[in-house]
Each structure stands twice: as C-alpha cells, then as structure tokens.
Amino acid sequence: MERRKFIESLPILSFLGRDFINYFDGSALADWNDVKKLFPKQDPIINLNSGSAGTMPLSVETFLIEKIREMNRGPAYKVWGDWSEAIASIKNELGDFINIPGDRLAFTRNATEALNFIINGLQLDSAKSNIIYAEHDYPNVIKAIEYRGKSTEAVPEKLPIDLASLTDNEIIERYKNSINNKTGLVVLTHLTHREGRVLPVKKITEIAHSFGAKVLLDGAQSFGHFNFDLSDLGVDFFATSLHKWFNAPLGTGFIYVKEKEDQNLAHPLYPNNNRLTNVENFGTSAYYVWAGIAASILVNKTIIPIDKKQERLSFLSNYWMEKLSAKHEVIFRHHPNSKTFGIRSFKIKNKALKPLKPILLNRYKINIKMVGTKKGSYIRVSPNVFTLEEDLDYFVDSLNQMLAGN
C-alpha cells in the first residue's frame, strides 16, 4: 500500500489532524540523510547516547507544542473527555508493535516508574517471597529490589552473572539453578543498558513459570529498538520507556500486565478502583506528552519501521567498532556470540577512559555515556537513526586525537 494511503487508514490520524500528513510526501526516503532531516539539527552536540534519551523528530516536536498550547487554553482535565478515544487508540497502536492487547497497557512517565509499580507493589506469598535478579540489571532496579527486601517480607537474591564471558545457555543455567519453589518474582532485563545484549528471556521465563513464579521484564532499551513478540516471550509484566528508541517525548513509557487477574496483584501506589489504570492516576500531569506518543507512532510505522531500524542500528555499531579496532586494542563489553543492536561499550587496553567523557563533550561536542563495571569503566556508544557514518567518523577521529595527546 502506498505510504500516504496507509497513513490515511490509521485510526490515530483523526487525532493527529489531517495537516499532520503533510510532514510526509508519500514517497520512500532516498537514504539515511533524508531520515536525519526529519530530526532537529544536533549541532553543536552529536548525540551518541540514545541509550539514555533519544531525540523527537521535528513532526513530533511540532505536534507536541500544538497540544501544549491546546491544553493551556482550556481546562487541563478536559483530556479525559476529549482525548479518551484517542488515548485508547494510541495504546492499541503501541500494543501492535509487540503483539499485545492495548487494553493491558497503562501509561507511565518512564520505565523506572513502571518497574517500581511491580517491584514495590506485587503481593508475595510468605512461602514464595524470593525475588531473583542479577548484577547486570539497571542500578535503579537493583536499588528498588534491595529496598523492598529491607522494608517487607521479600527476600532479594542477586545472581552474579558476567555477561562478557557467559553464553546464553550458561546464563539460562545460572537462573535455572537459582529459581525454586520459594521464588515469587524473577526480574529480567531484555536488552542490557551497559552491553546492549539481548538476553534469553523466553527460556528463563519458562523456567520461572514452571515453579509458579511471576516474571517482570525491563524493556527500557528494547521497545522501538528491535523487533520482538512480547506475547511469545510469555512474561507477566513488561515495563518500558518511549523516549529512548521510540523517539517519543520525554516523560513517556508504559507498563503491560499480561493477565487481567494479575492487575489486582500489585498494591496500588495511587489507589482507585482499577489497579492497572491507577498507575495513570498520579494527579495533574503533562497529559500532552501522551498525545505526543501518537505522532511518534506514525513516524515509527511509516518512516522507520522496526526491521529497518534494527538493521541500521546494527550497521552503525559495527561501523564505528571496526574503525576503532583498526587502530587500537579495543576490549568490548559484549560477548562475541551475543545478540546486539545499537548499544555497545568498550575500553582500550592500558588507557584510562573515564577522564575522556568531559573532553569529548566540551572540546568535541560529542555526548557519550560512561558505564561502570567490576572490570572498570567503559564508554557506551548508542547512535540512533539520525546518526550518519560521518558522525561516527568524527567520533573515532576525535577519540584518536585525544588518545594521541593532541
């Protein structure tokens, strides 16, 4: 189907407005230079840290500003009436990306909030009070689990797993040896924030379910990054952010609850009659960012479909890694046989990298992320669809100059 006709067939277009279609000319984009033009100019900063936050396309930015103006000129709570159908449609569209029903989604402000809703709220039986997690999980997730262990009956159990040295089967075996009849919740990371590694979620979930344990999946880095079927993974809860790889406004994310009966398993943070939608009942908020998700959906469906995106992100990562490895003895954080896409971390043998971050930012205007591990600090590089090869050439050349002492 011609792209313009496809856009016109989408239910959310009625919410976006007919003028929104003018952002797209109906023809295929010639190359990635055209994709870059859909985003605001990053000059003077080159953002190679989409693992923390991506960038909204200009069309999303413009639509969001329009919705801010609209809300600012009327009663704030009018959203519940005027936007209710649109919000339901947005959730359905989000669900379509990963093959889950939209009525099992609730908006959150980020993945951290969604994860805490389950970690701190899930009711655990006294006989099944253990929470399994791993040292490679996101620091705020680990802190939340450890806090619950201090404040409730929950028993945190951290697994020592070195992702740089273990295969998927060895990782599965570590979880298999730790999950038992006392396990009530297993917290998994889908795509790790340091290494950018996709973990074997489905098989670990099957093991957890065989012992009657629930599984919470941290998908902060996976949604909008690569193609996956969440229903096939079988997890009970899924939490994600939309401002990273989906290029939606900051302050957007969602939580998914697989079974309707599980909506009542978590003690509500903000009590009302419905435990799932109560996640959204956190008082007056920036409701217009929810509307901004609709514009991001259209971009991701029509301009940068997920299969094309994951292929591009893999190419970009391999591109800069090969250029850097040609000149230095580089130690990469990911396992050589692991599945990765747009996030990679590295250090260079016998070189101290930690002082390089402020120099890269202040002198060369390059934004990267430093990640700490037991084996020292690594530089994390996470380009996006608005990144071109010339941006990565500049990054590698700048790093070479720094390491040469220039």
Structure description:
This protein has 406 residues and is an alpha/beta fold. The chain is 39% helix and 16% strand. It is built from 15 helices and 15 strands. Strand 7 (214-218), helix 11 and strand 8 form a beta-alpha-beta unit. Helix 6 (84-98) crosses helix 12, helix 7 runs parallel beside helix 8 (139-151) and helix 13 runs parallel beside helix 15 (389-403). It is globular. The mean pLDDT is 88.
| Beta-strand content | 15-25%
Major sheet: size, sense and barrel closure? 7 strands, mixed
User: Average pLDDT, to the nearest integer?
Assistant: 88
Distance between the termini: 54 Å
Radius of gyration, CA atoms, in whole angstroms: 22 Å
Q: Work out the oligomeric state of the chains in this entry.
A: single chain
Strand order of the largest sheet: 2-9-8-7-5-3-4
User: Structural class, please?
Assistant: alpha/beta
Low-confidence runs: none
The percentage helix is 25-40%
Number of helices: 15
Shape: globular
Encode the helix/strand succession as letters.
HHHEHHHEHEHEHEEHEHEEHHEEEHEEEH
* Number of E-state strands: 15
Topology diagram in text:
Layout: H1 3-9, H2 13-16, H3 32-37, E1 46-47, H4 58-72, H5 79-82, H6 84-98, E2 105-108, H7 111-121, E3 130-134, H8 139-151, E4 155-159, H9 168-178, E5 183-189, E6 197-198, H10 201-210, E7 214-218, H11 230-233, E8 237-241, E9 253-257, H12 288-302, H13 306-325, E10 330-332, E11 339-340, E12 344-348, H14 356-362, E13 366-367, E14 369-373, E15 376-381, H15 389-403
Parallel strand pairs: 1-13, 3-4, 3-5, 5-7, 7-8
Antiparallel strand pairs: 2-9, 6-11, 8-9, 10-12, 12-15, 14-15
Helix pairs in contact: 4-12, 6-12, 7-8, 13-15
